[in-house]
Structure formats: C-alpha cells, structure tokens
Design brief:
It comes from Streptomyces anandii. Pfam families: TIG (PF01833). This is IPT/TIG domain-containing protein. InterPro entries: CHP03437_C, Ig-like_fold, Ig_E-set, IPT_dom. By secondary structure, the protein is mainly beta. The chain contains no helices and eleven strands. The strands form three sheets. The protein has a four-stranded antiparallel beta sheet with strand order 1-3-7-6, with no helix packed on it. It has a four-stranded antiparallel beta sheet with strand order 5-4-9-10, with no helix packed on it.
Length: 80
C-alpha cells in the first residue's frame, strides 16, 4: 500500500477512500480498526474502500490483506 486518498472521516463512516499500491487486485480483506470494510477492486494498483462506522473518535489501524501479505497504512485512519 502506497497511499490513501484520505486518512480521516466521520465516526458514522460511509466515506469512500481510494487506496493505491501494487498487486491490489488480489485483495482479500480490508479492516479499519477491528471492523471489516467493503471494498471494490478498481485496478491492480487501486481499490475503493467504504469506511465502516467507528466506535470512538481517534486513530485506528487501516489494513489491507492481499495474496502477497498484509500492509498497514503508516498514518492509520482517524475518525472525527
């Protein structure tokens, strides 16, 4: 994973975040905090993720799992 189009959004979720990287066509799971997120593959270098509702404001891990392994965004995702 090389980047997120946004690393913050409302606690109620629903925002769509573009994730860029390599080999994203093999994405199996995206989690924001402890919550699985819906996603769609746009290309091998991009996925679109619908942010799930959070449980509290603050920063949580943003993780993408592909056939090649798991990557966590350095910035995490901040619920506001």
């Amino acid at each position: 994973m090389t980047g997120l189009s946004s690393s913050r959004g409302p606690l109620y979720g629903g925002s769509v975040v573009a994730v860029t990287g390599r080999n994203l066509a093999t994405t199996d799971l995206v989690t924001v905090g402890d919550n699985p997120a819906r996603f769609s593959v746009v290309s091998d270098t991009q996925i679109a993720v619908v942010i799930p509702a959070g449980t509290a404001t603050g920063t949580v891990p943003f993780t993408v799992t592909t056939e090649g392994g798991t990557a966590t965004a350095a910035t995490g995702y901040t619920y506001t």
